[in-house]
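User: Structure with octanoyl-coenzyme A, tokens only please.
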Amino acid sequence: TPPKIRVEFDQSTGVAVMHMQSPPVNSLSLDFLTELCISVEKLEMDKSCRGLVITSAQPKVFSAGLDITEMYGKSPEHCGAFWRSVQEMWLKLYGSNMVTIAAINGSSPAGGCLMAMTCDYRIMADNPRYNIGLNETQLGIVAPFWFMDTMKNTVGQRTTEMALQLGLLYKPADALKIGLVDQLEPEDQVIAVATQTISRWLAIPDHARQITKSMMRKKTIDKLTSNRESDIQYFVNFITKDSIQKSLGGYMEMLKKRRA
Ligand code: CO8
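Assistant:
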């Protein structure tokens, strides 16, 4: 199978661009997340790599979020392994020492939005057909506490409270208004502007910026690190419930019908 992640590293700038290329919609499967984590870890260990731009090689979609087929009709063991990989992705990206910028060149629901929110800065394509947000309640599921915390840290308590209950997906202009993204750019310029913008962040002494980032995020990260196993247990119990499986099944049907 072809790689689901393609990394371009520019030695002269110290910036890597990570292209997610898992057709059709970059859904976050166990395989995809495993590959992504290995890529991030490699870059993290490479002292010459100081910045990371995350973007999509798929048209119209940044990432469709968690791969629903990994949580539907699967064994508790599988669901547990899958959830551990979702945690791992978040821990690696939210805790990264690199400057990270999400170049959101398409829709970014749920886990896709989470991934974008782990970054230090978000640039989204100015296309009203795209949307971004944590829409979990629309699937009849509940965003875990660390999804909630990440959004709260990004847009604040009140906006998060409303967005999460209603499962809101925001068009780019509205996402900009609430601060869920930081900048809008024409679709074909998102990646170029991201690589330009990152130089402003890289102009700051690494150690000062890194310590600042880690101090800002430490409490949120520690909360998951110290509750990892119970979070997995909670997820497995929740997702394997008949009622939740039924909601997920219905949602997948809806996705397929909408297309037909
Ligand atoms: N997982 C698996 N398959 C998916 C997913 C997904 N998340 N999203 C789309 N697909 C499939 C579609 O079913 C479709 O399959 P097929 O070709 O067999 O019909 C194919 O991908 C292409 O999808 P579309 O035709 O819909 O493509 P579009 O370009 O029209 O739209 C979108 C792209 C906007 C991404 C659209 O597919 C979409 O809205 N997808 C659903 C996104 C979503 O709601 N994701 C939520 C996942 S849940 C999550 O991330 C957090 C869960 C936290 C769990 C907590 C529990 C405790």
